[in-house]
Design brief:
single chain; 498 residues; 53% helix
Amino acid sequence: MATDDFFRARLENMIDLRHPLAVLARRMPWQTLEAVLAPSLAHRDRKGRLVQGADLFGPSAQLVGAGVSPAGRPRLPVRLMVALLYLKHAFNLSDEELVERWAENVVWQFFSGMAYYQPRLPCDATQIGRFRRLIGEAGVEQLLKTTVETALEIKAVKKAEFERVIVDSTVQEKAVAHPTDSRLLEAARAKIVRLAKQAGIALKQTHEREGKKLRRRASGYAHAKQFKRLARVLRRQRTVLGIVLREVRRKMSSLSQGAQAVLAPWMERAGRIHSQRRQDKGKLYALHAPEVECIGKGKARKPFEFGVKVSVAVTHKSGLMVGARSFPGNPYDGHTLAAQLEQTTTLLQDLGVKPLTAVVDLGYRGVDAQVAPVEVIHRGKFKSLTAVQKRWLKRRQAVEPAIGHAKADHRMDRCWLKGSEGDALHAVLCAAGFNLRWLLRAIAKQAKEAARKARRRLFALAPNWVYTVRRVLDRARSAIGASATRFGPLGSMRLAPG
């Protein structure tokens, strides 16, 4: 292809256009995706503020900062930022690793819509997080929807397959340390002391040295299983935290409203940690992430996981993800099925199809009326199932490796994003990354199948030629074998007599 830059070659002339990612770059509906995301990225109309002034005619009020401001650097291309989100979760990379590898990988740059090789970072790593927050949950669901529509467009999946899905739930763990009473009490004390100093509160005693000493003692006693001594240390840590909390509450009243607003949520969280006990409900498991829940899924190797429950829906035959949604509060699995099927129906609405059958495990019993007219199939109904439905039920566990790959290869094993909104965004993006790798495998499989069919057609058109080539190859093999016999083994080659 001709280039408008005499000194640079275009990327399509530098790469193999048969690479699965290059093929996918030309099949995805980028313009449609940009049009859908454009409203959330548009400059918003600001209200402005009144500024009091004075002139020759006396005092006056003027509205400043109102309207749409054209100030600031122009936004980066939407396709570039969307492609970065896809690549991040498809290849299990952090934001920093992603931008560094993008600068070195010409196929990734072609996928991102670049015309020429860019020997620099595409953006600062922090801009990826800002773009993710800007498009919100609706935007990342559009990314997942695009992968599903692309799979249908390239004929990697049939339309009828979307009528039957497998639904299961898992735990998306949060990036928090394993919660122990000792760690939480010491973290709360240190946080409140630090915030009090920043607000200008002079504390009588910070207990910093004693807090560190108690933390070390608690760790040693827990390791040695000396639980009575551990309980004594925990009582002292709780007493120390109570002393700090009461002193800060007494002195908070003299602070400004802004300083009190900063301190209030952390005081509330520290108070919860100070008052909670082992058998309480609704405990706080992380000071910086109050949305974390303790969820037990019956695993022998990991009895409890700390994060949020996530529901996943995949197609019954091909295993393409058609839904992923987080559910704060650790609800019963059956109570999440209606919401999960609603999301799947929304993602498939432009394809003119919706799920009619959901294959689930026994955790989804008793919700048939809530999800009607969708038919729910599980092992508890085995005696009343038809022969076809029993065959469908045998593939229920096909969702398990999909969840395993989403965790191991697409970052669902640990969520680093902030708050419940971060949990929701992360779950959908992991599903989108899973689907992108699924599409790459499907494209590679289609290319291999097309090459095999081409060889078959060639052999069918020229059978005599094939027979002649085979005879020549057989004679060459026999000649090579005779030579090896004459000259002996490779270790003792010698000339034959005569």
